[in-house]
Prior knowledge:
Helix content: 40-55%
Shape: globular
Strand content: 15-25%
Strand order of the largest sheet: 1-2-5
Number of strands: 7
Number of helices: 5
Low-confidence stretches: 1-5
Distance between the termini: 10 Å
Order of helices and strands: EEHEHEHEHEEH
Amino acid sequence: xxxxxxxxxxxxxxxxxxxxxxxxxxxxxxxxxxxxxxxxxxxxxxxxxxxxxxxxxxxxxxxxxxxxxxxxxxxxxxxxxxxxxxxxxxxxxxxxxxxxxxxxxxxxxxxxxxxxxxxxxxxxxxxxxxxxxxxxxxxxxxx
Length: 143
């Protein structure tokens, strides 16, 4: 994500989808993509959930990529959802056409708790990971 003229623009995204017979090769996919984007764009921050990314994060941090742990806890997810909601409400988020992202957005809902807004899905089988990642990628405090 980059900020420009009080607007947040999505300039690239990539979804890695494992299957039972073809698990994700973190080195060949995620590490390579993050290195390429770091060389190509002005990457200010890479957030990751430590669930499966701890080893990759340590390696990339040694290479001086700006990587930071951001566990998908309720307070963290509430904060990024509220920020995404604010950007959308202010029409300050620009995305490019992408069928998979459009499908995920159509399946995402926002629920409210005493802590604030949180992204959720209409059905357990729906995939909205790309929207959760988008919410984590948006700069805090608006554009």
